[in-house]
Amino acid sequence: MWQLVHLYWMTTNIIGLRLFGYEFWNIGKIGNIFISFVDYTEIPALILTSLFYVNELQKEFRWKSILFLILLNSQWLHLFWITDEVVVAQFTGTAAILLPIWLSWFAILIDYLELPVIYDTIKKVVLSLRKSA
Known about the structure:
- The protein is mainly alpha-helical.
- The chain has one domain (2-132).
- It contains eight helices and no strands.
- It has helices spanning 2-20, 28-40, 42-59, 63-73, 75-80, 84-92, 101-112, 115-132.
- The longest helix has 19 residues, at 2-20.
- 17% of the residues are buried.
């Protein structure tokens, strides 16, 4: 769920800056450090959620679980190759090495690929809590 904060920041700050020339949620340097930390808390969540869907596959094969594993694990590409810092540097023109701009948009898209997995996981937790209550 922390990733939702990160996605909100990306939408209002990075995308807003690129498309409109304005940051809709400027949280300053300390806020940006916090958001970077939030993004890396995703690592244990990626591992645990992947294990959850692998476990679901062991119980019953479903293409949905395969799709969610692919969407979820595409995040590794974004976390360790086209990071938020690279995207911001590309969008602001401060990058030491300029990459094609479509690559930055691709990295942003990768971040949003988590939304169906986040929704499904939250739904499963809520249903499980209701069932046990």
